Amino acid sequence: MLDERVQPNESVVPMLPCVAPEETLAFWRALGFAVTYEQSKPYLYLAFRWRGFELHYGRAANNVDPSLENTGGCLVMVDTVAPYHAAFTEAMRRTYGKVLAKGLPRITRYRPGASRFTVMDPSGNSIIFIQRDEPTELEYGGSKQLQGLARVLDNVRILREFKNDDRAAFRALNSGLRRHGDGAPAVEQGVALALLIELSTALEEPEPGTGLGRQADRLDYR
Predict the structure, then answer these.
(1) Among 56, 68, 80, 129, which has the highest number of CB atoms less than 10 A from its own CB?
(2) How many CB atoms neighbour CB 76 within 10 A?
């Protein structure tokens, strides 16, 4: 039963663990966030604002390992995700000379039509921007309406965008190419090879096999 004394005017601000205060300040400033509060003693507290939402940080526990990338996180629900990704990647290029695509911090790639992307901060927190009308049902393993490499690519999309698990996507794509690559249309092979190169870079893993770029160049797209 609703309590009529409580009016629906809440604002929720995520409180994220921070292991790298200076790096966190520099990163969000680079993306255009305003620092609304900054304190290091007697305890750490950082607050940032960008347009209509805020991120706050406090000191992380001593056993937090940012490299595991499971420190914490929050969801940012928006009407359309593409403009946010464009704004952040442009800011990265201005400050860093490139889009940060691997290690920490970084931003995941946005593909046309996607409904989410993730910003990983220097402490291993995931800030996930999600389109409000995003589909609510997912078919892990890929859509049953698809076959072969097309289904593998759909599963890789879900692993990357919804589970934020590049390593699982890398394994699934590598295996799927071996099983279905030869019989797949050239366009699907090209997309798969490009994704495998991208994942290898993001994970700082050696490319499986050799010459993925050369393989893609040799495909006949006619």
Answers:
(1) 129
(2) 17
pTM: 0.76
Cα–Cα distance between 42 and 55 in angstroms, integer? 20
Q: Please, what is the end-to-end C-alpha distance for the chain in angstroms?
A: 63
The structure tokens 């999600």 sit at: 130
Residue 76: closest CA among 15, 131, 125: 131
29/122 Cα distance (integer angstroms): 13
Helix (H, G, I), strand (E, B) or coil at 204: coil
CA dihedral 136, 140, 144, 145 (to 10 degrees): 60
Cα(205)–Cα(155) distance, integer angstroms: 21
List the one residue out of 125, 93, 129, 126 whose CA is nearest residue 20.
125
Please give the Cα distance from 49 to 30 (Å, whole number): 13
The residue to which tokens 């593409």 are assigned: 82
- Domain segments of the chain as ranges: 139-222
Interval 31-65: pLDDT, tens: 999 999 999 999 999 999 999 899 999 999 999 99
Task: Compute how many other C-beta atoms are within 10 angstroms of the C-beta atom of residue 28.
Answer: 23
